[in-house]
Specification:
Length: 282
DNA sequence: CGACTTTGACCCGCGC
DNA sequence: GCGCGGGTCAAAGTCG
């Protein structure tokens, strides 16, 4: 990644657990109720950035045919392939690749194909390790420094074929013990068996190692306009009502707080299967 | 040797 | 139009 920094203000806001300025009174009431409930049950849940840009349709800039080929194909096209001059040839091929990539993108733009964003959701986890084991295999494809934060953001893609789920992992700069994991998209396959050799020992699924987490999970959706839990759950592709779809290895007993009995109104959207005794405690 | 990580370069969209 | 920042690509390096 380049040394360019990424604004950490967003992270600051994300780390502000008491944020609910944009909620209506009813939503705020629900929100407060949820907070109260969650605080007592050690599970924290909150909205993040309801006005965030994630998933928001962006106006596409008009395609301008002015991308210059003067220093690439046009220029290179006039040169002769001087046999042993393989370096030159390689350079030409590289340039050609770049140009064709650019042309592809512009062609897509012309066809009105906007870069589409899958719904996203994020959750915060207290953890010593950045990349929490979630049962899927991920390949890191990028990392960027976060502005005003000493911690970089890492970009991962699911390694399964035809599955373009991505996740971003970053540490909250206000609370370095908190890891913010943002998922984008939904897996189109079952979670592969986790290779015990390759998985990090710190995140192995043994309950003993689960002590690295404090069971505090914070869910959010970056989609704008999401202002109640049901919408949030929907936008999360059902994550909240079925977190194991996304976090198969964090199913009970590892995430016991994510269980709730039926018929508890709002709560069941988020905590679908909590035991009666848990509710009684409230 | 394949899978994965690292990292500089690049592209795109947005705000000014 | 320009600069900035988020996100992605892809070559090179590393590891088992």
């Amino acid at each position: 990644m380049s040394g360019r920094e990424v604004d950490g203000d967003e992270l600051s806001r994300r780390c502000d657990f008491s944020f609910h300025d944009d909620l209506s009174p009813t939503q705020r009431e629900r929100h407060d109720f949820m907070r109260e409930f969650l605080d007592e049950s050690t599970l924290t849940m909150d909205y993040l950035l309801p006005g965030g840009d994630h998933g928001a349709a962006r106006a596409s800039t008009p395609v301008t045919p002015n991308f210059s080929m003067s220093s690439t194909s046009a220029e290179l096209g006039g040169e002769e392939d001087s046999g042993p001059c393989s370096k030159k040839k390689e350079k030409m091929e590289e340039e050609d690749k770049k140009v064709s990539r650019r042309i592809n993108r512009q062609a897509k733009q012309k066809l009105g194909e906007k870069r589409q964003r899958e719904p996203r959701f994020a959750f915060m986890t207290k953890s010593k390790v950045d990349n929490l084991e979630d049962g899927y295999r991920w390949r890191k494809y990028g990392q960027k420094a976060v502005k005003n934060s000493g911690y970089p953001r890492s970009y991962y893609r699911c390694t399964a074929q035809k599955c373009n789920v991505k996740k971003m992992v970053e540490r909250c700069h206000r609370d370095p013990t908190t890891v913010i994991t943002t998922y984008e998209g939904k897996h189109n396959h079952h979670s592969p068996a986790v290779n015990p050799i390759r998985s990090s020992p710190a995140v192995a699924l043994a309950p003993a190692n689960f002590g690295h987490f404090d069971h505090r999970v914070m869910c959010s959706s970056g989609n704008s306009g999401i202002n109640d839990m049901h919408q949030l759950n929907t936008a999360c592709g059902g994550f909240l009502s079925n977190p194991s779809t996304y976090l198969p290895s964090l199913t009970p007993p590892y995430l016991p707080q994510l269980q709730v009995p039926a018929d508890h109104g709002l709560l069941q959207d988020i905590l679908p299967r909590m035991s009666h005794s848990d509710i009684k405690r409230l």
